[in-house]
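Minutes, project check-in
Item: structure for the 87-residue chain
Input as provided by the requester:
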Amino acid sequence: MPATGASGAMTLITEYDTAGSPVRVLRLESSADGKAVLLTDVDERKPGIHREVRYEITPSELIAAIRANGAALPGKPHNDRLVSDPM
């Protein structure tokens, strides 16, 4: 089964100052080549200091980390084999 690279982006956290300007943004996005996921943390909470940190991880490493540290959500049970829908 062929697989494609990652695509897209989402903002996880945005913090604002009292004037309503963003002072911290935590964003998750795919790399330009789609082979990695980037977590970007832009922090301007201290006046005059701009800090930007990027973390990179492959999608398979991210999936393994979530499976190792996350909790399964309750829901519909699934089978390991595909079954055709009779409808």
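Outcome recorded: The chain is about 15% helix and 35% strand.
No further action items on this chain.
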